[in-house]
Every structure is written in structure tokens, then in C-alpha cells.
Amino acid sequence: MTEPLTLHTRTTPAGTVIELTGDLDHHTTPQVRSALPSLDLRPGQQLVIDLGGITFCDSTGISTLIAARNHALSANATIALAAVPDRMSHIIRVVGLDQVFPTHLTAEDAEAAWHPTPG
Amino acid sequence: MMPRTGDEEQGGPTGERAQFSALLEDSAEDLYEHAPCGYLSTLLDGRIAKINTTLLDWLGYRRDDLVGSWHFSDLLTVGGRLYHETHFMPLLRMQGEISGIALELKAADGSRLPVLVTSTVKTGGDGQPLLIRTTLFDARDRRAYETELLRARQEADRERERLQTLATTLQRTLLPPTLVNVPGLDVSVHYHIASVDEVGGDFYDLFPLTEGTWGMFLGDVCGKGAAAAAVTSLARYTLRAAAVYDPDPAAVLANLNTVLHHEYNGTEPRFCTVVFGLLTPDGDQGGFRVTLASGGHPPALLMRADGTADYLPTPGGQLIGVLPDAHIATTSLRLDPGDTLLLHTDGLTEAHTAITGDKDRYGDDALLGFARVLAPTTATHTVTAIRDLLNTFGTGVDDDTAVLAINVPRPPSEEQQ
After folding, report:
1. What is the DSSP track for A69-113?
2. Quick check: A96 and B316 CB within 8 A?
3. What are the structural domain ranges in chain B?
4. Which one of B2, B5, B131, B137 counts the least CB within 10 Å of its CB?
């Protein structure tokens, strides 16, 4: 059974942080996709996806991370993942996305690692 | 709502009171006779003692026909009479009441009237049962509703069967009906369908390229259903065409990446993970040289003739279709007699195992352990063993699973050892 997914967004000077809790699968990913267009991302900012509460992630979950990355890049922003659970980190490594998504232990670490790019 | 005038406000309550009075004068006798339900009183043996006009009208009998001579069960159909005898009356005697029982009455003209029957036993002051009071509700509407529900359900079942047939047919078009025979190789495949309602996204193929060389691939498109099937189809044909154009495995996958990325970029990214292999006969001992390219796919497993087994990691290979310049990782090996190479999709390793419970997946380590027990083996044995393994998981396999094994058979003289 799918655990419901809860999505919480907050804004920091570095950019938006999306906290996801629950199962990220083909039942729940439309919720994340539909939240992307309304994110306020300014050029040079960083979109952080906090995955600390993710209990399960399937291939559609991975494609949602890619959709989020596409969204960030189209806003001239960057993307980072935080608190990636072990199993998800394994999947991300197998599909070679570890080279594409900078990852941090916590969302705070991700924020600290962000440097405003001169725009 | 109608606007009210001042007069009505004053006169209204008085008028309503008059109406209520008229209602209250409605005699209990009239209510009994013309109630919107049937009333029936019988003696303890079921003989009809009293019956209201509503029920008589429904049935088309006169009061004199029934009272004193007929039993309640005489009004029932044969099936209803049996039910009345064996269930209705025993329960009523035991509980003193029974409610909401669906029965059919036979009218004077032979027609049938579905009713819902409720009965209570009236007892005297000394607690002894005196008679049985029964109310009957016209259930024709309900019966029509049930018939309609049944019809809708049968229709839905037929639709579901049609959908399943369509999904299965579509699935078959995405897989080769039979794999070609490769001289000097034992080849075996299995496709496990997790859901008959939705087309899965796993695919594989094995096909001849230039003289003596063979191409093979196995992959997994993200997602399910028609949209995933479209990508699967595109991936399959692109891989075969690209292999003819340039059989170098990394080039084949780079070509697929370009095609998918061009087709499916944006807010609904579609990707696949895939292993592509090029097989070339090598030397005169029956061995094959195998070059594998991986685009973010779980690593292949090599089970050696000497009984060892290991993954063939292709680190750094990236999934196909969403990055403009996906990195393709390659590895090469020699498949000697007795060696077996296994490609699989992660439906196998992501399966919930019956033993470990809901949240635990079979996993890469368990599969490696399984392969170490199997080795040395053959393609046929490997695929049979994996089919058995999938069967033990039962419904724990929630994603489609494809496995493809190739093996260079040992010379017959060695097999007997």
C-alpha cells in the first residue's frame, strides 16, 4: 500500500526547500509535478529537495526529481538533494544521477553550501 | 423560495394547525388498511387472520379468499416457501422477530411481486406467543435497481476483460515472440507480468548483426501504461536500427539517448535504463567476447564455470533519455564454456519478499547470493530458478520483471563429470 505523500515548501534566502514525506511513486508524483510551476525560483537560487521523510521511491519518483531539475534549470536556478535515504541514494547511483544532483546531509547543509552567483 | 406576504405569515400557522387536525383525525383503521406497505397477521401456524387492503390490492385477491383458509406461505413462490420453512420461521421462533428478508409473492394473476418482509411475534401477558405480525414492503424498485447493478457489473467485467486482452496483446508486441537461435549459445528469457491491467515497461531482444555477431538488450522504461508502452516501442526499434548503423554498444545507447531526449524532454520526462550487449564468437573453444554498455541499468551478473558469481559493475552509466549527454559505461568480458551471463530488471530485486515483510525488498545482495548458489549453471536452469523465485514472492512482485540469460554450453564430455 502506498503511504500518502506530504509536501511542505519553505523559502530561504538561498531558494525554495521542498520537504517530501511518504512514498514517492506513480500514485503520488503528480502531486509534486503540479507543485513545480508555482515555485518562486529566482535566477541563481537553489531548489533543495529534502528527501529525509521518503519511505519508498520508484522510477516515476526518479523522473519527478528530473522534472524538478528541468524546472530549476529553466529558471536559471540550480538543484540539490538533501537527506537522501540509503535505498534512494543507491537507486540514484545505479541510474547515474549522482553526477547530476549535488547531495547534502541536511537541507541546512545545502543552504550553507549555496553561493549566490553573480547575476 | 416564494416571497411571503404579511397576510400569509399571520394566516399560515392557523392554516397549518387545521391541516394537522385533519391528519390526526385519520383513523388508525384507515391507516392500517391503506398504509403504504402490506400488513398481515397470522396465527402461529401461519394461517392468515388479518390482511390489509394495500396487500390485497397488490396481490389481486379478495379478503374472503384468504382470511381463515390460506397460510402466509401459500402466497410465496416455491423457492420462497422453502426458505420460509427452513430459515424464516425457525429464526422468527428463536428471536421473536426477523427483518428485511427478500421474498417473492405470487399474485392472483400469476405475476410475482418482490417484497421485503419483517415479522414479529406478539406475545400475551404470560409471555406465550399469540400471533405473528408481518409487514411487507414493495421491493420492485429495489429489484430493478439490483438488476441494473448486476447488468452494470457484468458490463464492467466485460470492459475489464477487453482491457486486459488489449494490455496483454500490446505487451506481446513489445517483446519478440521467440528469440533467435544463436549457434553455440544457450539462451533463455522470462517476462513476468505484474499487473494484467497495465502494460509494463520492460523489454528485451536478441538479434543477428553483421556476420557472426549478435546484439542483445534488456531494459526498463519508467512508469506503466500506454505512455510507457509508447516509449518501450520507440526504444526497441531505435536500438535495433542504431545497432545496424553502428554496433558499438556505447554508440547504440548514445543514439537512443538522443532520440528519447528529443522526444520526451520537459515536465513529463520519460527515461529508460538499458543494457546493450554485443556478442562475438571468440576463438575455437566456443567462447564469446561480450561488450556490455549500460545506461543506468542494474549491473549484469556473471556466473562462472568455476562456481563463482559476481556483478559486472558499470559505474557512472546514466539513465537514457533525460540528459543531453548521458554518460554510457561499458565493460567487456569473455564468456567461456560453462559461463552464464544474466541480465535482469529491478522488478526482481525490488520485489517484496514473503519472508521479510512489506517494507523489505529482495535486494542486490540476495540476488548475488542466489547466483552464487546456482553457479555453475546454464541459461535454462538460471531462468527456471528465477521463475520459481518470483513465484515464491507471489504478489510481492509489484513491477514487471524481465530476465535474459545466455550461456556457452560446456562440451558434452565435460558435462558428464
Report:
1. HHHHHHTT-EEEEES--HHHHHHHHHTTGGGTS-EESSHHHHHHH
2. yes
3. 22-143, 176-415
4. B2
User: Is residue B44 classed as helix, strand or coil in its secondary structure?
Assistant: coil
Give yes or no for A27 touching B (CB within 8 A): no
Does B318 sit within 8 Å of A100, measured CB to CB?
Answer: yes
Query: What residue type is assigned to position B156 of the chain?
Result: A
Does residue B317 sit at the A interface (CB-CB below 8 Å)?
A: yes
Is B298 an interface residue toward A (CB < 8 Å)?
A: yes
Question: Mutate which of B318, B344, B400 to test chain A, going by most A C-beta atoms within 10 A?
Answer: B318
* B297–chain A Cβ distance below 8 A for any pair: yes
Please, are residues B342 and B381 in contact by the beta-carbon 8 Å criterion? no
Q: Which residues pair with B174 in a beta bridge?
A: none
Architecture of the domain defined by B22-143? 2-Layer Sandwich (3.30)
Where are chain A's structural domains? 6-113
Task: Find where cell 383513523 sits.
Answer: B27
Note whether B295 contacts A: Cβ–Cβ < 8 A: yes
Q: CB neighbours of A109 closer than 8 A, spacing ≥ 6?
A: A82
Q: Is B171 on the interface with A (CB under 8 A)?
A: no
Separation of alpha carbons B352 and B364, rounded Å: 13
Q: Is B223 close to A66, i.e. CB distance below 8 A?
A: no
**A residues 30-59 lying closer than 8 A (beta carbon) to B:** 33, 36, 55-56, 58-59
Asked if B118 and B92 touch (Cβ cutoff 8 Å), the reply is no
CB < 8 Å to A87, chain B: 361
User: Which chain B residue shows the shortest CA-CA distance from A99?
Assistant: B316
Q: Which of residues 1-20 of A touch B (CB under 8 A)?
A: none
pLDDT in tens, chain B (417 residues): 444 444 444 445 667 777 776 666 668 888 899 999 999 999 999 999 999 999 999 999 999 999 999 999 999 998 889 899 989 999 999 999 999 899 999 999 999 999 999 999 999 888 899 999 999 999 988 888 888 888 889 888 888 888 888 777 777 777 877 788 899 999 999 999 887 777 778 999 999 998 889 999 999 998 888 788 888 989 999 999 999 999 999 999 999 999 999 887 766 788 999 999 999 999 888 899 999 999 999 999 999 999 999 999 998 999 999 898 999 999 999 999 999 999 999 889 888 886 655 557 888 999 999 999 999 999 999 999 999 999 988 888 888 899 999 999 998 776 544
Residue B94 CB neighbours (<10 A) = 9
Fold of A6-113: Transcription Regulator spoIIAA (3.30.750)
User: Looking at this protein, which amino acid is placed at residue B103?
Assistant: L
Nearest residue to A39 (alpha-carbon basis) of A66, A69, A84, A60: A69
Residues of B in contact with A63 (CB under 8 A): 222-223, 268-271, 322
Count of A-B CB contacts under 8 Å: 63
Q: Is there a contact between B268 and A33 if contact means CB atoms under 8 Å apart?
A: yes
Alpha helical stretches, state H, B125-248: 140-173, 225-245
